[in-house]
What we know:
- The protein folds into 4 domains: 4-46 and 153-211, no CATH class; 50-146, CATH 2.40.50.140; 212-449 and 646-694, Rossmann fold (3-Layer(aba) Sandwich), CATH 3.40.50; 452-608, Rossmann fold, CATH 3.40.50.
- The chain is built from 25 helices and 22 strands.
Amino acid sequence: xxPEILFPLFVPLSRLPGIGPRLEKLLEKHVGPHVVDLLxxxxxxxxxxxxxxxxxxxxxxxxxxxxxxxGVHIAPRTKRLPYRIHVFDDTGEMSLxxxxxxxxxxxxxxPEGARRLISGRxxxxxxxxxxxxxxxxxxxxxxxxxxxxxxxYPLTAGVTLKVMAKATKGALALAPAMPEWQDPAWLKQQAxxxxxxxxxxxxxxxxxxxxxxxxxxxxxxxxxxxxxNQLALGLVRTRMRGRKGRMxxxxxxLRSAALAALPFRPTNSQMEALADIDKDMASDKxxxxxxxxxVGSGKTLVALMAMLNAVETGAQAAMMAPTEILARQHYTTLxxxxxxxxxxxxxxxxxxxGKKREAFLExxxxxxxxxxxxxxxxxxxxxxxHDLAVAVVDEQHRFGVHQRLQLSSKGGIPADVLVMxxxxxxxxxxxxxxxxxxxxxxxxxxxxxxxxxxxGIPLSRLNEIVEAVARALHxxxxxxxxxxxxxxxxxxxxxxxxxxxxxxxxxxGNKVGLIHGRMKAADKDKVMxxxxxxxxxxxxxxxxxxxxxxxxxxTIMVIEHAERFGLSQLHQLRGRVGRGTGKSSCxxxxxxxxxETAKARINILRETEDGFVIAEEDLKLRGAGExxxxxxxxxxxxxxxxxxxxxxxxxxxxxxTRLILQKDPALKTERxxxxxxxxxxxxxxxAIRYLEGG
Length: 694
């Protein structure tokens, strides 16, 4: 249960002054539903009102605070003209202008002859100074009511700075002083304030330097968030390994039979990864390992060897993929190897219904199906295993921590878990999302993988590209043509996949296929099968082909509007070619003029095929949220912390978590209780459930 001290922070935004139903909806969409969300919405700039010139010295375009005498009011002749008020001091005069100004309010606030402090932006019009709509107007004896430095917050349509500032001030007033969850020696070493002091300081910047992520106050808040993240992952890890696992160690006969059917030898990197996995599976501790490898590094073969290890002991194995296309792709790849080893492998998707599904599930319950491949359908309650020993989760970033826990818990004794991703992830991000796992990296590519020539070409040369593709098709090539959208958007000036397919059909006839995310799974499979069989030679697609599709005969990848893709995504797409013996090319078509970031992406891709180098560069260019794909996948993003700017703090939080859970695994000490509050503060409530054994 959430600690009582946090109750004021988890009330709706409507409890704050000035926030009615309309503003509540706008703010909720922008920052989140609770008061606490405003605390994490830190200023991105500031307005400095300490510049106090005379009228004659006021500089054009600057925020200035002036003490003036109010002169004559001039009401507008038409509604289109502003209401003007002349003001003056001993050096000169200027105008205050108000569009749609209310005369009654203005005469009351700015009476003729009165002295007033006014603050706003100076603008020169026809050589004369004026101040449109002053931000603040106060009497000289009430100067204390005017904020000399105001924070500027990221805003959304319909929410003004005044509204945001007032709401945030109300939220800060509700923020309690918290029990200290940080180690005192660490706090002293870093010279950080308390959580409450850090919060107040972060929302009251006095200079532009106070907006940097590395200030003491922002660093403190960032570390709190990172510690909550690492502690939550650490508790998952403890839970996963706390319950006794099984010792799985096969005799190698099935693996030998499968390897004998391969046309190549596994790489040293694959064998080293397999050694790590074998050691984990042979232990009575539950395996929770991340297998990280670049596109085409051979992760699927390693996973098969792990699954065959389980089958050799008489148990079952499962592999879950995020899409039907990928699940069936795995089935196509692995079935010949399983057949060679005499192992019964099947694939289950949401498409399987009725008596066929019932018979299938009965075979699974009886243990006749030894390896099961599938999608989310594996999570369904009626999917029961006879004896599940190892669960493989492919493309982990598409699934959450709780989903892999759910999968591993199917069957009696908790299964070992092997997670795979073809998305090379920088170490800092690996810690934030996979901190509960041991990590193995595949750093070699199997023999026979071809280098890929990458070129950046402006879209204005589209006709030349089509002609080049025509020549390649004549020589027997197969081509991917990727577009970023399914249909024209009024917001994004990009070519639609449907339109591009229609254009290419005019050139290449019925050899052009189309695949996108809005198609039914069965229709996608049909198109893919035709492309694999060579009935289609050009496949126009959206990023649905980013993950897992394997057509060795495809040697050309055209990516349209490459400037709209992230580096890692471009690299993933490029990895769909270069899988056979033919020379492969990737053509990045971009719209001019090309921005600096997009230019950097294309240059990096031309220079390297190393996915881990590319991932690090992607992190620098885009930031953590987009690299992780949090917007699409539902992964928890950071509100305050920045894994790039705070990379050293993330490492420290990771180490601190290990020490905490060694000394106080149940979080029962005084600091442990405070850390429980921290977990609730950053809404890592699920971790508490693991702590309680739920």
